[in-house]
Design brief:
The chain has helices spanning 15-24, 40-43, 64-73, 76-80, 99-124, 137-147, 156-168, 181-188, 192-201, 216-220, 245-255, 273-294, 300-308, 313-324, 329-354, 356-361, 374-391, 395-420, 425-431, 445-457, 461-471. The protein is mostly helical.
Length: 479
């Protein structure tokens, strides 16, 4: 979802603060807008990346976008999300969200957003070629939501920061002069979103062309920052690495995404990105509040107050009546949470439809959340502030960030040394641990470093910790 270095402006900032920051950096101020317009006939296509020659426009019982969804669910990288931190440490006696459960919930909300939007737009475009494609929006957004966190490394967003700061502040600094400016920024601006696009499209050793071979529309719907690292604000975001430039531009140009400026490396977002982003924002914000209640970081009174603030006065008495029917506190919070998600889903759907023209011309500013009506918007801001003050700076969260930073930094040190100097005996032992799909013997330093980052970012928290212990002699196999 969306929270990285900017989430920590200072020693430890919060995910909620980042959301506000990163919306403001969607495009640097120097980019130029365009009066042209994207069209749904091109934005929605079943053409598959890497399998273009097999593309046809036939109607199948199970659509290509439903196939995207199923392909994600049955993939190994998606299953590994169950052992990757979302915010709080992986569950002990109390179950909280991991990246897998988060992605599934985001996908459910995304499908609802997409279906709401499709229903409204089908009526608007009735009798036009677009009307036949618009019903697929819910399936596209649901599939993209499943994929949106696939490129995130272990240990939550602290993992992203650990990789980026290793190169910008740590031992990786010595490699700066051996890389081009773009290659260097790819590492110092390391971003899970761009890494997801690489994971989904790159042909790793022994794999088929096209990576996951997802549809162009699903791929474009996850790119929240459709520009290269060379155009990213300082310590900002990026949508694709130098190695995926051709892949991204092929997808963007085929879909008719609007260029932003003359560089050829900056585009306006695919409109469905806004729905994926909204689903992510809704889920992590509200579910983090619920998790904090389960962990007793927030009291029941605090949690109810935060969630009831979303309720319009006309519905308030009804909500209170339902709460009075339930004695279980957790069920009360779950009911409020579901009510709030419904409110936010309806609001974001409405805003998307009302601002469709701006979304298609690339002139829409901010996020859908930013444009909500006063009551839900102010309640959302209050949740963000509470998360900043009480949740993301809690001891458990900081502990996982500290441990994750140490583990990833150590793994980068050892593995980068191994790929740079493979002739060493220790390097050979360590490289034998790396699966063959990763190109550790790439011809360029950039390629070698990417292989290391590919390997580490694909690890689960548990695997990374286990490898760290073995490398440091803290763990030995049973004899």
């Amino acid at each position: 979802m969306h929270r990285s270095d900017l989430c920590h402006q200072g020693k430890h900032h919060a995910h909620a603060q980042l959301v506000s920051n990163k919306r403001n950096i969607l495009m640097p101020d120097t980019f130029h807008s365009t009066a042209r317009r994207m069209c749904w006939e091109r934005l929605i296509t079943a053409k598959r990346f890497g399998m273009e020659k097999y593309h046809d426009e036939r109607i199948h019982k199970r659509t290509d976008f439903q196939r995207d969804y199923d392909r994600m669910v049955f993939s190994a990288p998606f299953r590994r999300l169950q052992n990757k931190t979302q915010v709080f440490p992986l569950p002990g006696s109390i179950f909280v969200h991991n990246r897998l459960t988060h992605s599934l919930e985001v996908s459910c909300v995304g499908r609802s957003l997409g279906n709401n939007v499709a229903t409204a737009l089908i009526e608007k475009y009735n009798g036009t070629p677009a009307a036949d494609k618009l019903p697929h929006i819910g399936s596209i957004v649901a599939a993209a939501c499943l994929a949106h966190d696939l490129g995130n490394p272990p240990f939550g967003h602290s993992g992203e920061r650990a990789i980026a700061t290793y190169f910008s502040e740590g031992n990786g600094l010595e490699l700066k002069d051996q890389l081009s400016e773009w290659e260097w920024k790819d590492f110092t601006h390391f971003e899970g979103n761009a890494n997801a696009f690489r994971l989904l499209t790159h042909q790793f050793n022994g794999r088929r062309p096209g990576g996951f071979a997802l549809t162009y529309s699903t791929l474009a719907s996850i790119i929240k920052y459709p520009y290269a690292s060379t155009f990213s604000p300082k310590k900002g975001k990026l949508g694709f690495f130098a190695s995926e430039r051709e892949n991204f531009c092929r997808v963007a140009d085929d879909l008719g995404m609007l260029p932003n400026g003359e560089s050829g490396l900056v585009y306006h977002r695919h409109p469905l990105v806004y729905l994926v982003e909204a689903a992510d924002d809704i889920c992590y914000q509200i579910m983090d509040i619920e998790d904090a209640h389960k962990l007793k970081i927030l009291t029941t009174a605090e949690t109810k107050e935060l969630l009831l603030a979303y309720i319009h006065p006309q519905r308030y008495n009804h909500i209170q009546e339902v709460l009075g029917m339930v004695n279980d506190i957790n069920e009360q919070i779950a009911y409020l949470r579901s009510s709030v998600i419904g409110i936010l889903t309806d609001e974001c759907s409405r805003i998307f439809v009302e601002h469709e023209d701006e979304l298609l011309t690339g002139t829409f500013k901010g996020s859908l959340i930013d444009h909500m009506a006063d009551i839900p918007r102010k309640a959302y801001q209050q949740c963000s502030q509470t998360a900043y003050n009480k949740i993301y700076t809690s001891s458990d969260v900081l502990d996982i960030e500290l441990a994750g930073n140490r583990i990833i930094t150590e793994l980068l040190d050892k593995l980068i040394d191994a790929v740079r100097f493979p002739e060493k005996a220790y390097s050979q032992l360590l490289l034998n641990k790396v699966p063959q799909q990763y190109e550790t013997h790439a011809e360029t330093l950039y390629g070698k470093l990417q292989a290391v980052v590919d390997y580490i970012s694909g690890m689960t928290d548990v695997y990374a910790l286990d490898l760290y212990r073995k490398i440091n002699g803290m763990s030995l196999p049973a004899v």
